[in-house]
Each structure stands twice: as C-alpha cells, then as structure tokens.
Input
Amino acid sequence: MRDWVGVDLFAGAGGASTGLRDAGLKHALCVEWDKDATDTLVAAGFPGVCGDVRDLKHYEELGRVDLLWASPPCQAFSTAGSRKGALDERNGWPWTLDIIDHFKERGIGPRFVVCENVPGLTYHSGDCTGDMHSCPGCYWKGWIIPEFEKRFDWVGHIMLDAADYGVPQHRRRVFLVA
Output
C-alpha cells in the first residue's frame, strides 16, 4: 500500500484513517460532517474536510484514488436502534455508491473499496417479509451487495471482532470489500 492514495468517507475522528495510514496509505481526503471530529482529524495530520459526503465539490481536486474507505452511519441498522434500515434518512449506502460512481465517471478510481458497519446490517428483522426497504438483512443481500457487484469484479464480506486483534472489548463489525 506504500504508494496508494485513499479517501475516507464518514471519517469520524480518524480511527480507521489512522490504521490505514499506519499500513502505508496516503490520504488525499477525509470527509466528516461533525466539526469536532473533523478538527481531531486535522490535528492528527489528515486532510479533513467538514461537510456532507454528498457534496461533490469536496472531490473536484482529487487525482487517482486507489482505496475508498467508507463507514456509513450505522444507526439505521444497529440492533440498539429503531432499525429503519433503507428508509432511515441517515442511510449512507446510496451516498457511498454515488461517490464511487462519481470517481469512476472521472476515471480516477477507486481500485478497491472497504466499507464497515454494524453486524445488524446483515440481520433480518424479526418480522421480515422479504422487503429490502424495511429489513436490514434483505437490504444487505438484495440491494447493497448487488449494487457493489455491478461496479466491481469481486465483492466479499467478513465479520470481524476487534477483541481478536488486541482491543480490550468486543466490537464486531461487518466489512464489505470490493
């Protein structure tokens, strides 16, 4: 990853960005809407921009993008929340795909995408009727995965627990790789 250039969407305060930088990724841009989190990103040496990931002006100056990392808001899919899924106004998956399409239209990438989210995104709701708009698991299998498959030759996913990597807490997340 030594010469790779990356973009981080929904960057938060830079946890994933830090790990990616430690692995050798050079960030061209980290977009986060929360000002305090963006200030933390910038203080840590990242090219943080406070704003909405949907605003295409953030990406006008970008050149090649090798890796796009995205951590779309998880509230819509968390088992701790109301689980409105695709109908939740915070559903950032369509926005992530819009940015991927924008990059591809400009011919700048991305070569690879990694997205992380809560495991609840892959779970079917208790009253699942197969409707991908109201059931997170149906949305995952019926919309998210197929949309990535339209754009990339290979799409896979894995569930990881931070405790398996030395973090002193269980924090399971699903990672989509394309």
Remarks:
- The first strand starts at residue 5 and ends at 9.
- DSSP finds four helices and seven strands in the chain.
